[in-house]
Amino acid sequence: MFDVLTYLFEQYRDPDAFGDRGSLMRQLEAAGFEDEEINDALDWLDNVANMVDGLYASADDASGMRIYADVELERLPTEVRGLIQFLEDHGALSPSQREMVIDRLCELPDDDINVGSAKLVALMVLWAQKAELPILLGEELLDAIHGEPTMQ
């Protein structure tokens, strides 16, 4: 699934440019992806797009500290929670975007939840919202796609 998401991010700077799902599936199949991973990725992106409509909007109005539920503490490693906090503290994620990232991460299998996947999930949430992010933090998130960041 992450390979498909990475491919889509690299090919489409605007997620609205996908066109219809059928032609996008054909394009992804022609690029060598399998039907199951294509469907998983597109369903995952559909869920992110549905969240954009305001499911977590009230989080932006709240003040205070985010306390993780027991199930989130079990599923999200300390390093992942630290990354999410870092991104929020530095203005890359709003509280509602943070909640979207947590929600999408918790939908992944346990073996797939790590710092790299958290960076990719955060990038996909921001991309789906067409959000701007500070250049250095964007470089850090792009590390999940391109390897080591080029900026020091």
Automatic annotation (TrEMBL):
> Which species does this protein come from?
Aquitalea magnusonii
One protein family per Pfam? DUF494
Tell me the protein's name. Answer: Protein Smg homolog
Q: Which family does it belong to?
A: Belongs to the Smg family.
